[in-house]
Amino acid sequence: MYSCSYPANQPLDGNRAQSLPVSASCRETIPPSEPELGGQNQGHAANADVTLTVDVPLIDAERLLHQGTEQYQSGQFEAALKSFQKAFLLYRDYQDDRGQGKALSSLGLTHYSLRDYGRAVKYSQQALAMVQTLQDHRSMVKILSNLGNAYRHLKEQAKAIEYQQQSLAIAQAVADRRGEMAAFNNLGLAYKALGDHKTAIGYEEQSLVIARALQDKQIEEQILKNLGNACYALGNYTKAIDYYQQRLALAREFGDRRMAGQILRNLGNACYALGDYDQAVEYSKQWLTVARETQDRRSEEQALGSVGVAYDALGNYARAIDYYEQRLAIAQKMQDHRVAEQVLGSLRVAYYALGDYAKAADCTEQRQALLEAH
246-270: b or e for each residue (b if 16 or more CB lie within 10 Å)? Predict the structure, then answer.
């Protein structure tokens, strides 16, 4: 099961990403592995007569594990926890170490998705002990990845990096390319959290190479987002724009209009930071179009502001005023007094720059009245 910081600004692990509900904080990560579906326990398959009678608890455990996975995939995390807990108890009664490892790993991942990172660590540590005893290296890759991601959210970056490095080493040793891809991405996120964006970019770029080799466009999109954000934070706006443009192409290929809108916003911001105000206007207008098509009023309000600010920077105050006025109308309809106050400030400056001192004074009065009233 994939959980998602992937954001979160959205961790990787060794399995193929699926379209699962994820929390916002996880969006930037390439998600940890999903709970594994149980198969027939190999240690008890030899004696068919015994299997018919003794393996009933095991069958129930496998059913509960499968049920929990389906609940997780549909976003029913609390229900999934109950199923995984029951499965674990049955596996424990049956003294099935491999089954216990699966259930504990699934409990850790589900707590991670619930943002209960302390419990995610607790269950993942127990799962790790189980799979280490079994020398199950591929499961170790996934669990170490989940531990690293949980510690990153707990702001224990040294531990996060330690676990991701262990995950990477094992993934490379057993030729687990997806696990390797996940570890590189998650190491990048941990270093980003430390403010070491150069190191973060180095790891993310290695992850991107593998994602493209595997032709996994969903994962590629997430990595491009992380790379773009890291380059932006580093002040390398030209490179950030390059990654955002690549991500935009994928979003359009997916037909994801909301994602495209978010990327257009990022592109507008990066172009503005670079001083390319004409291109900032263009991307912000495209974002505005998407916001209106998807009837996203908050994004529409924000996009209008971005277009206005870019025109302001170009010295085209008349056009800036036009977009500011549209933004103000939406803010007033939404009764967002903070935004309305901000826009009135921008309008005052633009009218003053045009030499329309009467309207500038009127904006000042409206802004003051708004501040006094709220």
Answer: bbbebbeeeeebebbbbbbbbbbbb
Tokens of 50: 């015994």
For 227, phi then psi, to 5°, come to -65, -45
262 residue type, one letter: Q
**pLDDT higher at 372 or 200:** 200
**What secondary structure does DSSP assign to 170-211, as a single string?**
HHHHTT-HHHHHHHHHHHHHHHHHTT-HHHHHHHHHHHHHHH
pLDDT of residue 373: 87
User: DSSP string covering 50-74, please?
Assistant: HHHHHTHHHHHHHHHHHHHHHHHHT
Rounded to 5 degrees, φ, ψ at 220 are -55, -40
Contact 281, 307 (CB under 8 A): yes
Count of C-beta atoms within a 10 Å radius of residue 3: 31
What CA–CA distance (Å, rounded) separates 4 from 17? 10
Spatial distance between the Cα atoms of 292 and 309, rounded to a whole number of angstroms: 19
**Which residues, including other chains, have CB under 8 Å from residue 81's CB and lie 6 or more apart?**
68, 107, 110, 111, 114
Classify residue 137 as exposed, middle or buried by CB count within 10 Å of its CB (0-12, 13-18, 19+): middle
Q: Round to whole Å and give the CA distance between 208 and 66.
A: 32
| Residue-wise pLDDT tens digits, 41-77 | 444 444 444 444 456 778 999 999 999 999 999 999 9
Cα–Cα dist 216/134, whole Å:
30
Taking a C-beta distance cutoff of 8 angstroms, is the pair 118, 154 a contact?
yes
pLDDT tens figures, 114-159: 999 999 999 999 999 999 999 999 999 999 999 999 999 999 999 9
First to last CA, the chain: 47
Structure tokens at 207: 């992850």
Give yes or no for residue 356 having a pLDDT over 60.
yes
Orientation of helix 237-254 relative to helix 217-234, angle to 10°: 160
